[in-house]
Amino acid sequence: MELGPPGGSGPAEPGPRLRGLRGADAAASASSLSRFGAEAGCRASAVAAVLPAGGSGERMGVPTPKQFCPILERPLISYTLQALERVSWIKDIIVAVTRENMETMKGIIQRYQHKRISLVEAGVTRHRSIFNGLKALAEDQPNCRLSKPEVVIIHDAVRPFVEEDVLLKVVTAAQEHGCSDYDLEFGTECLHLALKYSHIKAKLVEGSPDLWKVTYKRDLYAAESIIKERISQKVCVVMDTKEDEEHVGHCLEEMLKTELNHVKVTSGQDLQQIILEQCYNFVCVNVMTSDFEETQRLLNMVEESNLSILYPVVVISVHFLDYESVPLGQKMEKVMQIREFAKEAKKRNILLSGLLIYFPQVGKNIDKIVCSVDYSFFFFWWEPDFF
Amino acid sequence: MELGPPGGSGPAEPGPRLRGLRGADAAASASSLSRFGAEAGCRASAVAAVLPAGGSGERMGVPTPKQFCPILERPLISYTLQALERVSWIKDIIVAVTRENMETMKGIIQRYQHKRISLVEAGVTRHRSIFNGLKALAEDQPNCRLSKPEVVIIHDAVRPFVEEDVLLKVVTAAQEHGCSDYDLEFGTECLHLALKYSHIKAKLVEGSPDLWKVTYKRDLYAAESIIKERISQKVCVVMDTKEDEEHVGHCLEEMLKTELNHVKVTSGQDLQQIILEQCYNFVCVNVMTSDFEETQRLLNMVEESNLSILYPVVVISVHFLDYESVPLGQKMEKVMQIREFAKEAKKRNILLSGLLIYFPQVGKNIDKIVCSVDYSFFFFWWEPDFF
């Protein structure tokens, strides 16, 4: 395949390097891999990744190019960037986008606080886009902050579920074998291009089924469900009292454990640590107080942590109301108040819902209600979308 | 490819032929196709379909064979059968299942009221399963109710989204070309098998992207989302009064139309017809009465129609409560009552939820509340899963 002169020039201005809590996927087994990763990083003087992202996505049946299609309101390419940038030994990530989408892409990098990203202009074909990325890495430009890599990973912008082990396999194979005859015979044309123009070693390694490419609209559905499943497996129950934790908290924990992999109950002292470990789901049980103190404290901590930048954080505020002891009118005022919280929280990707448990029988203990099979009380449920 | 003697024998007892409302997919463009279909049916003396369904689904990563994996609680193969049996000119559908799954399969046919189905035992390979299906069609058995077909469609049990137009293309191609050299060269081994053993014409026709096969777990997610999208595009708002229909009904209609393709508002007189046209989503607005008369009437009609056999029917019962005029205790009794309805309805695949709109300001009109942007009232939401 003969190529004309490249469509794009050098790298555009590097992406912003904002600090923030980064959202590694729950599925990543970071501990064992990072050791290997560090070794690979040692052996390779530098590893870079090039993402061709100049496609128009005509097979999607939607006007937005597929790399910009939203999954849980975040563009697909942001998930792919997240998967690559959590691999510490990838020093630079070059994204090739069309001129029209350059500003969109810069906005995505800024909004989701992606790091180590440089943008180059996409070519008219996928190969030219890759070429432009490789060229930016190979060029000796004054003031160029890019390290010259020994290994370049070429990764589709629309394969969001790439794992560190596969990337490591790619890098190791590249270091050990270079580019074999097999690849030249059976590999894709990308390899020819890399060999012919960039003088950078390259090799194709077979991926896992997880490496699938988002091509059709149904793949967006699947991607959304996979992401939802990942972030919904961990839940933290925050109790507003240590005493009740033993009763109500234990009941809730047992119930939730039948559905979810990770259930943590706390009376709040280790909340900061739980947020740092990227738990995206909270049930905040207000037993002692009739207002939203505990919920408000949790909302503040979540907001400060930047946890909700990458994924929506779900907070369910649970309130127990004794029919006899608290006048409904008074409780209603409180409900009005949480509506305001919910409105504000939603702007920051925190989905605050409420559960009011209104039990009409005097003398019924709260822990009995939570653990009861014969539910003889009322539930009221409100969701942020209602407001 | 040389085959030994077939693993299975003749057809097992035919599937039950129960009468009931059948759920054609919303996406099927029945009108124009059925004319073509009828023509094809005329030209072909008989068309049959064989579904090999003996797979173990090891790539799914789940213990259940993929054809039996649930989507919205119904097994995948039931969707495929539904897609085939809504094509009137397919006279017989032969499903090849393993001996262990024979009872499961019979249960599925009975529960979801599938028609024109015969079961044969699957062989140890996909080819033997197809062979057994073809053999059952070709054999001259006394008391055999199967028509000898001119054309046989061989269809994977795990491709649920097959449309009538593709099936028609298959049949037309088979009638016009028989089995060409191209197919023999490039087609799958199924063709060789069909040619060699069954003396029945067969041809491979290229399918559309919709014809994709459920292979991995992510495909189940995608299938579920596609089905949900299809059945959620149609909603019917049932008002309990004709007078309010103009105000509240119109507001609701306008709001819902921004999200959904088909919105119908009725005061109930044409409800039977709407159910017959397979609307799976209802909002039942109780303005005039403070009890559940309208909702109960709707639930009864849905239950009698068998609408919820194939897909869950969603009913949202909306109730307006004036803070001043109705004592809360009294309203609470009603809430208790709908919990019982919801429990019972869920057993019949009807998901009854409730929305209590509790407005504290005297003199506020209901239509103003529905259309209001500044919501100054309370919502209470209850879901069947809570009970």
TrEMBL record, chains A, B:
UniProt feature, compositional bias: Gly residues: 1-10
Keyword Oxidoreductase: no
Pathway the protein contributes to: Protein modification; protein glycosylation
SUPFAM superfamilies membership: Nucleotide-diphospho-sugar transferases (SSF53448)
GO cellular component terms listed in the entry, alphabetical order: cytosol
BP-aspect Gene Ontology terms: isoprenoid biosynthetic process; protein O-linked glycosylation via mannose
InterPro entries: IspD/TarI, ISPD_C, ISPD_synthase_CS, Nucleotide-diphossugar_trans
Keywords associated with the record: Cytoplasm, Nucleotidyltransferase, Transferase
Record's compositionally biased regions (Low complexity): 11-24
Subcellular location: Cytoplasm, Cytosol
Secretion signal span: none
A GO MF term: D-ribitol-5-phosphate cytidylyltransferase activity
Chain spans, region Disordered: 1-24
Chief place of localization: cytoplasm
Domain D-ribitol-5-phosphate cytidylyltransferase C-terminal: 233-372
Keyword Nucleotidyltransferase: yes
EC id: 2.7.7.40
Reaction(s) catalysed by this chain's protein: D-ribose 5-phosphate + CTP + H(+) = CDP-D-ribose + diphosphate; D-ribulose 5-phosphate + CTP + H(+) = CDP-D-ribulose + diphosphate; D-ribitol 5-phosphate + CTP + H(+) = CDP-L-ribitol + diphosphate
Domain of life: Eukaryota
Family: Belongs to the IspD/TarI cytidylyltransferase family. IspD subfamily.
Record note on quaternary structure: Homodimer.
Function statement: Cytidylyltransferase required for protein O-linked mannosylation. Catalyzes the formation of CDP-ribitol nucleotide sugar from D-ribitol 5-phosphate. CDP-ribitol is a substrate of FKTN during the biosynthesis of the phosphorylated O-mannosyl trisaccharide (N-acetylgalactosamine-beta-3-N-acetylglucosamine-beta-4-(phosphate-6-)mannose), a carbohydrate structure present in alpha-dystroglycan (DAG1), which is required for binding laminin G-like domain-containing extracellular proteins with high affinity.
Protein name: D-ribitol-5-phosphate cytidylyltransferase
Organism: Bos indicus x Bos taurus
